[in-house]
Amino acid sequence: MKKIFLSLIFLAILTTGASAQVKMLSLPQLQKRISNPDTVYVVNFWATWCKPCIEELPYFEKLQATYKSQPLKVLLISMDFESKLPAVKTFARTHKLASEVYLAQRKSDQELIDAINKDWSGALPGTLIVNGKKGIRKFQEQEFTYDELNKLYQTNK
Amino acid sequence: MKKLVLLMLIAVSSMAFKLADGGYKVGDTAADFKLKNVNGKTVSLADYKAAKGYIVVFTCNHCPYAKAYESRIMDLDKKYSAKGYPVIAISPNDPVAEPADSFEKMQELASKKGYTFPYLIDETQDITRAYGAKATPHVYVLQKTAAGNVVKYIGAIDDDTENTKADKVKYVEGAVNALLSGKQPQVTATKAIGCSIKWKKSA
């Protein structure tokens, strides 16, 4: 009995620790996901092979954790090949990513890049901030420090 | 008079900045350069007297997507160099920011893989800035004309970085084939996911 109880606790810790769920997300699904005007969305485009992306991921996690009581939603959209879903899942689990993680499902890179922002060259990382209520939709093709990211949120929330 | 000269100077320099900032668009004339090749010699576009144009590829050692395209870049040179469109590869990255892209590592890679084309380092990053390359790999197809080297195509090598599609659209080949047959490329600009350029930290 004790054993079952312990393993139940263990299981609970495992499943609540990090969401580590990675789903495929198409462009229309993404547009819908970021359409609530009362929420500020910070959408980071990254990849498991992209070093500067991996370096800044903790800042996005920290932003979400710091402002968890505010209407802020951080989304991490992997631009890895669609065939790399298992690798992205493993990455999300081993890095204990708590934010929502998706793998971009796309007909072509170009269609997605242009739909996110015409000025985006396609270089990773890139970050989109959306505040529907204020009519803000900005894209930054750059790496962020936490302070820069926090500033981006503060000036657009 | 002095004032006028000063004003003109300001206007000219701000124009130069503007150009450098946005990089080239299709139809612009691309600057030639003098960059150090992995063999220690400097290379300029003008060195290629018989060339009809150039396939300028901003690429590098470290980027997984540049690696994914490496053999396709090598194939482009094998296929088009003899036809008058040699590949000129330029590594745009600051080796301090990305040690895997040091000149020595570039030399190692070029000799290991047997590159048949120059692999140049843009130490000042001025050419990268002038062209407006934002990612690796990033291709500029230039056509040599009496007026200079005109940009005819900017973007990806094809629409299949992963290299799994049999029916991939080979953008660069399409552009060069068109130019070789005296036509204009149908697709002149494309985008693909790539690695950001590793810029020198500004002082």
UniProtKB/TrEMBL annotation, chain A:
Matching Pfam families, A to Z? AhpC-TSA
Q: Which residues form the Thioredoxin domain?
A: 1-157
- UniProtKB keywords: Signal
For this UniProt entry, the molecular function terms from Gene Ontology, in alphabetical order, are: antioxidant activity; oxidoreductase activity
Answer whether the UniProt record assigns the keyword Repressor to this protein.
no
Signal peptide limits: 1-20
- The UniProt record lists the keyword Amino-acid biosynthesis: no
Q: Which protein are we looking at?
A: Thioredoxin domain-containing protein
UniProtKB/TrEMBL annotation, chain B:
Task: Please state every residue range assigned to the domain named Thioredoxin.
Answer: 24-181
> What InterPro entries does UniProt report for this protein, alphabetically?
AhpC/TSA, PRX-like1, Thioredoxin-like_sf, Thioredoxin_domain
Can you name one GO molecular function term for this protein?
Answer: antioxidant activity
Q: Where is the secretion signal located?
A: 1-18
Protein name as annotated? Thioredoxin family protein
Q: What is the lineage of its organism?
A: Bacteria, Pseudomonadati, Bacteroidota, Sphingobacteriia, Sphingobacteriales
The cross-references to SUPFAM superfamilies, in alphabetical order and at most eight, read: Thioredoxin-like (SSF52833)
UniProt keywords, alphabetically = Signal
Which PANTHER family does the entry link to?
Answer: OS07G0260300 PROTEIN, THIOREDOXIN-DEPENDENT PEROXIREDOXIN
Matching PROSITE patterns, A to Z? THIOREDOXIN_2 (PS51352)
